Amino acid sequence: MAVIEVADLRKSYKDREVLTGVSFTVEEGEIFGLVGPNGAGKTTTVECVEGLRRRDGGTVRVLGLDPQHDRAELARRVGVQLQQSQLQEHIRVREALDLYASFYEHPRDPHELLRQWGLQDRADAEFRKLSGGQQQRLFIALALIGDPQVVFLDELTSGLDPQARRDAWDLVRQIRDQGVTIVLVSHFMEEVTALCDRAAVLDGGRIVACGTPQELVAQAGAESSLSFQSEVPLDLGAIADLPGVTRVTQDGPTVTVTGSDSIVDEVTGHLARNRQVVTRLRVQQSGLDDAYIALTTGGHQ
Amino acid sequence: MNALPKLTATEARLFLREPAAWFFTVIFPTLLLVILGSIPGFRKPSAQLGGLSTIASYAPILVVFTLTMLAMNGVAPVLTGYRERGVLRRMSASPVPAWMLLGALTVLYLAVAAVSLTLVVVIGRLAFGVVLPKQPLGLLLVFLLGAASLFAVGLLIASLAPSAKVGNAVGTALFFPLMFFSGLWVPRAEMPSVLRHIGDFVPSGAATQAVQDTWQGHWPHAGDLATMAVFAIVVGTAAARSFRWE
After folding, report:
1. What is the pTM of this model?
2. 3-class DSSP state of B97
3. ipTM of this model?
4. Residues B95, A146: C-beta atoms closer than 8 Å
5. Burial letters for B52-70: b for 16+ Cβ neighbours within 10 Å, e otherwise?
6. Which residues of B touch A102 (CB under 8 A)?
7. What radius of gyration, in Å, describes the C-alpha atoms of chain A?
8. Quick check: B182 pLDDT over 90?
9. pLDDT above 50 (res A301)
């Protein structure tokens, strides 16, 4: 069942068209990524979906509700972590959670969230005294305090160190395992690969690709490459004729073969059949980073 | 839903964590009263002040001082700061609308002003023989209307200020002329009539006169009430219309 349905979403700021027809669906219980370069419209898209911004056109349904007309009901059922927002300087961690808990009819236990997000030692610290990572974790806890069915996390792990980032990923999976649907805005490909079931790549105000991380890599047609050295001359023409190979180059003793993902098997199989011994074999497989560059304007620059 | 009491209690705790905030609104007016009251001449009736003692003519000014301080150094900078930090936006994403935070601050500031007023009345009476307000109902009305007019000005600053820095600066800068017209430096009774008449059309000036009148047992002048009402309604509406949540 689709929890979020967005069709032809449009939004302009003054004369600048920020979203030019964005469509995607998010299924119940999945972690859905929204990725793209800065200024692609990621945050505007989620804010229209959350009901924080009015759209200019298109339809949006979240849990069957229209964020523009049923905003109050929607706010009770979704959790939101905003990019770049802060709390009152002097508010303490525990106070913030207790306060937001009072906004919901069936809130989660603030103490449990404090513990889960590693904030119990900072429960009596004022917001201004928290580190960037602690502020971030507090905002995630606030997004979950209302026991939401859908959670929007905008740049979840910005400001977290690598260990804290991995811990956060584990917790996001835990949230999902409790049946919560998650929309994750990120420009960090490793995060999308690690966490998301599916992702949409947004660029210039529209979706340029959508699918599982593997599908995005395939769709981008990003290339893999294989390089090796050989003491004896090789028949490079035969290698170039192998299926999937697009390019073969030689630089001194080093031969580099470029092509689709399948060339690794093709080339190594060919060398083995011809009993050709090569050294310093290196494989560079395309990943989501390459796919991302290929799919967005970054690839044309 | 117990959001409003919870928000008010939380904002009250935050207020108490800012020493400058409670010192200048709760302690300072009474401190000024004590300092002025300890000068023997200020406790005697003065012909220039229409038979009132200096201390009795200052008590209403101190009441308005608190309201003006809360409006200029409370409403204006706190709201622009909350907007700039995204506090209002974060609340907008919850089931409780962000205007509830404005409601909580209003309740809090009225309570702070009421405490400050009570201190001035009680200390003035016990220590310096200032009579108790003779028209308490009228005083309550003027207190609320004065608060509404001054808070409206603070809200307008918050609506128009592009940043917390500007909101803070404009609030602080406006505090001085507002207090001038209430007679903090030169009591209204001793002002040249031109300045006093200008003061009649300034919310702090009208509020001071009206507090003075009710304190002495008179019903406030319609003109003073009108000045406050016009500011509360016209400025308040303009502020509400132009207020930005982000």
Report:
1. 0.86
2. coil
3. 0.90
4. yes
5. bbbbbbbbbbbbbbbbbbb
6. 1-3, 6
7. 24
8. yes
9. no
